[in-house]
Structure formats: C-alpha cells, structure tokens
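Friendly challenge for the regulars: who can give me the structure tokens for this chain first? No prize, just bragging rights.
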Amino acid sequence: MSSFRLVLLCAGCLTLAHAQSLPASSATVTTTPTVSPEPARLAQLQSGRIAPAYPVPYEPATPEQIKSVLDRVLTYLEGASSVRVIDAATKQPVTDLAQLPAQPRLERTDFLLTSYEWGVTYAGMVQTAAATGDNRYRDYVATRLQAITTLAAHLKQQTAPADLPPRERGIALRQVIDPRSLDDSGAMAAAMIKAARAGVAPDALRPWIDNYLEFIATKQFRLADGTLARNRPMPNSLWLDDLYMSVPALAQMGALTGETKYFDDAVKQIVQFSARMFVPEKNLYRHGWVQEMDPHPAFHWARANGWAIVAMAELLDVLPENHPGREAVLQQYRAHLAGLAATQGGDGLWHQLLDRNDSYLETSASAMFVYAAARGINRGWIDAKAYGPMVTLGWNAVAQQVNAIGQVEGTCVGTGMGFDPMFYYYRPTSVFAAHGYGPVLLAGAELIALRQGKGADSVIHDGGVHFERATGR
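First reply, four minutes later:
Bragging rights claimed.
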C-alpha cells in the first residue's frame, strides 16, 4: 500500500479516503513546519479577540486629545497668518494703528486674511474659544479683525472704490470695502457676526457686516426665482459652494437683527438649490448646475457637499423653531447626512468624489461632515446612536491629517466647476490650501462639546464604538 502524509489545507482539505484514492505518484503530501505563535498572540487566538490593525485610532478621542490637535493648528496659524501692517509707499512696518500712513496695507502672509476661507477659520476660532474657554482663539480673531476693519475704514475715507488696489494675495482690502461676489462677502460676514455676538468689537464690525449683507441681499446676481447664481463658467450657473457663501451670513444676520427677511431668504436658498442640485437616488448634491444645460451631469464633489451640509447646520442652529421653512430644511439636512454616512471611507475620511472610491481621500470636506453631524447630535436633530460612531471615526481620521507643526494635510486646492471626472481626480492637495483650517477647528470644537455631552458615555462594546452603554449580555 502506498505510504502517505497528510496536511490539512484551509479550504477543501484532503481527506484520508481522497489521499488513498490518488495515484501513488501523487499520494504524498508535503507538510509545512508548524510555528507556534507567541504566548500573547496565542491567547488572542484562543479567545477569539485579535486586535485589528486600524490605520487610525479607533477609540473616541478625549476632549484633551482633541484640544491638543486644535492647539497645534492655532500655534501654526499664529505664525503663518500673522497680522502686520506696512506702509505701501515705504514698505516699512506700521506699529500704531491710530497713526496710519496714506496707503496702509496688510503684509503678505501664507494665507489671505480677508478671504472666504479665512472667514471660516475665524468662525472656527470663535467656536473653539467658546468650547474650550481658551481666549487665545478669541484673541486671534480680535487682532486680525481689528486690523482689517481699521485699515478698511482708513482706505475708504481716502480712496474711491474704483481706485482701490486690486485683489492681491495677502493685501486684499478692496473686497472688504467693495465686495463684488459671494466669495468676497458671505463667509467673512458670518464670521464677523459670530465674533460680534461673542463680544469682539461689535460696534467696529457692524458697518462692515451691513456692507457685506447689502451686497448679498441686493447686488448679487440671482435667477428669476431669487436663487443666488453666477454667470461663470456659463450664464445662469449654480455653484453648490454658494450655499455656504450666503446662507450662514443671512442666518446670522437674522439672529443679530431679528428680521425675518434674512431667515426667509436663507430658507429659500436651501430649498431652491436642493430642487435643482440634490440627487435623491444617492442623497448627495451635484457640484454645478447650469440652467441651459440638459441633462445636468452629477459630480458629487466632496467639499461642495461639505459647504451644503454646513450651511444647513448653521441655518438650523439659529432658525426659529416656529419658522414655516424649518421642517423642510431639517428634512433636507437629514436626507443629505444619510447619503454622506453611506459614503464614508473605511479609514474614516471621505473621497474627493463621494461616490467614487478610487478618487483620493480629502480632509477639508471630511472635517465639514464631522462638524455638521456632530452639531446635529448635540442639538438633537439626529440620533447619536446612529451617527455618533461615524462622527467619532471621522474626527480620528481628520486629526491624523494635522501634522506635527499644525498644518492640515490632504486638502484639495481651490476648485472651479467641472463636468468630467479627471478635473476632480487630479486637483492637487496642499497644506497651503486654506480651506482645511476652519473646518478642522469647527469639527474639533464640536467634538469637544459632544464628548462632554451626549458622547460622554460612548464606549467600545464587542469591539465597536457605541453611543449607549449596554444594559445586558
């Protein structure tokens, strides 16, 4: 009888009967030497509890851990976006804002202190100060807004709008004095109102707040039904980004003044943008919509969806409970969050094109989604048990994108509207893409509030994050 040796294979093992039925030439099966696992590993195997090799931390971050990430960002930005005033004629520094030369300018820094991206950053600083009690964040805002408004007032007295300096990197005061787009006005207006409501120079800020809101309410181009629009890249174009460039400012102005017309306009924008741009089959928004185009392509660019969900969260935060449009906005917010939850990547971040997993993972949008969902949990708009784990993982992944010196990595640079995938797939990322800093601050501040409130009892149970403690076996 032919001799044989038998080794069990993981799937479809050879049996004795099978081995005996093989020809003699093939009945011998080579054994593989057995290597005993380390004792600790053996204990894990025997217990069935093998530690997963997670690419980012999995357990909920503590408020202290979150704050340490935000502190790195603050330290970096204090240097990279410092406020220095110079005399445009002599290039010499100006140390006394009460004695300004004829043509003062903000010295160039790595970031533009009057841009919409920095409006989001100021808002994030104000919120972080409120969440942590650390006044360094408030001081960051106060110092820069004081310089901006002082210089703008000085230039406005001396220079006609047509003679103002063009928008240049680091010295753009023209857009404060004479805003000409939603990018110029919306995010900065919302940030100034938030700062003023937090006690940062409300009297000095109010004229500029009014200036911005006058542009949004009466000068920005609109479609026939009042929807805010642009005439680029084609006539009658809607950019999803413009929900953030308008709605938070309108909402904050409504809260500041008590005038219903601002709330009404903000609700109108959410409803009418959504009617054209929301794709219910995926619960996601398309980035661009052109009135004369048919059909309307749907490229679900992540950051544009971030602007939309944050705009809805900001509106819901101040919209009166009895406003007739509140329920429509709330339902739209919930539908959008469901779509976002379904597209979160396995590492915690979201993809540049949300429904295309071969596009890269992008930080700024991911931070926006974390912020908007965490705000919803904290305010009771959505279920903590359903969305808390998504938010927890999302923050842990975003925090990994803040490097040792406080720069935010993995942020897509400024992006126009495109109608083909390559346009979005190959947009560069940069630590100097200013869009990442404000969302990270907003997300971190909201996570601190979550961990101190409804997320305080979040636990690891049976290996997974849960936002309610188990009551039985």
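The longest strand covers residues 85-87. Residues 253 and 259 are 8 Å apart (CA to CA). Your move, everyone else.
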